Amino acid sequence: MSLKQDLFRRPAGSWRAWSFTLVCAALTACGGPVESEASDEASPEVATREDGLANVRLRLMAANLSSGTGQDYDPGHGIRIFQGTDADVVMIQEFNYKTDSAADIRSFVDTAFGTGFSYFREAGAQIPNGIISRYPIVAAGEWDDTQVSNRDFSWARINIPGPKDLWVVSVHLLTTSSSVRNTEASNLVKFINANVPAGDFLAIGGDFNSGSRSEALFSTFSQVVSTASPYPADRNGNTNTNAGRNSPYDHVLVDSDLRAYQTSVVIGSSTFANGLVADTRVYSPLSDISPALSGDSGASGMQHMGVIKDFLVPGDGTTSSAVTVLSPNGGESWVGGSSHTITWSSSGVSNVKVEYSLNGSTWSSVAASTGASSGGVTWTVPGSASTNAWVRVSDASDASVNDLSNGAFAITTGGGGGTGQVFINEVLLNEAGSDVNGEFVELVNTGTAAVDLSGWSVSDSASVRHTFASGTTVAAGKAVVVFGGAAGIPAGTAGAVAASTGTLGLSNSGDTVTLKNASGTAVDTATLASSLAGTDGVSANRSPDASATGSFTLHTSVSSATSSPGKRASGVAF
């Protein structure tokens, strides 16, 4: 299949002035129906979400809530959940209803959401993806998912209140394997980079079929959206979303611009600080999400829970304000009692409140109000050990304008104190002979504390090649080596693992290797020229060896050996 719908190439300011009738006509001609009111005027439902020119609450939902045996919404369980949770924009999967005629689909949208809602549903798919929106869809279409034949990636550009449009992509990744899902993610990232303006908001939502949050696809998606915790949860704190509530299948991921406006989900008398996993079986009081019934999420064929995140975005005529945490931003290891500077950037904010958490849920103050323009505040790190520490910076006068560290950082105390420093020390791009299992990337920790590598990834210039399993650590002064395959690991190599994708795929004509932490932030990058890959079995090594600032040279330039995976260049153990 080819790209179903090209973007209208118009200046950003002209979108709202264009007649929606023209957009509908163009999309209908391509086979992808968009249904909407022709006017941009807000319906009464929309108006209740705005307070003059104040911020607007925007609720995004990922929903594969079909039930029964037909992968559709005819039984009505999902409809009641939609009615009770009252989302503004839904990235929906298995978008089938009754005969799937235009009249039936329109009837479903009217019943589940309201007559003023717009929708896009991809054409020609057995289990189509789609987008349903309270606000006008000004353009929509589908991008090819080359890994599956019965659906594609559905996208829509939505004219939400305020100065920015919102782009949403509805996805339903394949169950086959994590490597296939990462291929799908890589392809989608390319579409987004080629088509979505950097100045607009972006959300990717839907059924990822991800078995864990350490899958490579999250590192791939982190190029365009935030994949960091904290995660939405149900009434009992469970963040998993499949029917058995033991795997994180479903997600709403947004770019850093929109993430800065994330706020608690408030439904009736209930508040969910990090977003909601909507499971009617555990929700209480159920009256908050009426007419949903307690058994709806457990209905036959209901394989997923809905995921909801709320945002307070600037309304029309407001001045955009934002803060972004710069440090600590995830992956650091700071010693309790030491002094560090918490830094941030900001716009449209006079004073900020700075807080920290040792568990991601309980917050303590660093500064109740300090000048935003200073960009930093000195912090004495608390003397309590933690592997789940966070920093939050918010507008002192508007808590909805806030940002968290992109990932957790560690605080160490006592004899386990110190700071870890992990970097790429040695890379074998051109394996000895033709067994690519022998390619390897060696990482060294020259710091004074162990570093948790859970969720960290190693990529080449093409894609993520390895994601470290949960619980993987590299001790201070030690090394870990990622080989292309288990068959290539020499006997007795300390700290050796096989690439989680089954290959490193390094190029004999040169390559770029990148190490990222669990939040997707690049920790180290090694760009290796073809001259470092020209001889079979000779690796590229830092010179001096085990120096984070050393340049790469042929291993034979630093020792008589051709390579030294898991050891110092001299052959001595780390």
Automatic annotation (TrEMBL):
<keyword id="KW-0255">Endonuclease</keyword>
<dbReference type="InterPro" id="IPR005135">
    <property type="entry name" value="Endo/exonuclease/phosphatase"/>
</dbReference>
<dbReference type="Pfam" id="PF03372">
    <property type="entry name" value="Exo_endo_phos"/>
</dbReference>
<keyword id="KW-0378">Hydrolase</keyword>
<feature type="region of interest" description="Disordered">
    <location>
        <begin position="555"/>
        <end position="574"/>
    </location>
</feature>
<keyword id="KW-0540">Nuclease</keyword>
<dbReference type="GO" id="GO:0004519">
    <property type="term" value="F:endonuclease activity"/>
</dbReference>
<protein>
    <submittedName>
        <fullName>Endonuclease</fullName>
    </submittedName>
</protein>
<dbReference type="Pfam" id="PF00932">
    <property type="entry name" value="LTD"/>
</dbReference>
<dbReference type="InterPro" id="IPR036691">
    <property type="entry name" value="Endo/exonu/phosph_ase_sf"/>
</dbReference>
<feature type="domain" description="LTD">
    <location>
        <begin position="405"/>
        <end position="530"/>
    </location>
</feature>
<dbReference type="InterPro" id="IPR036415">
    <property type="entry name" value="Lamin_tail_dom_sf"/>
</dbReference>
<feature type="compositionally biased region" description="Polar residues">
    <location>
        <begin position="555"/>
        <end position="565"/>
    </location>
</feature>
<dbReference type="InterPro" id="IPR001322">
    <property type="entry name" value="Lamin_tail_dom"/>
</dbReference>
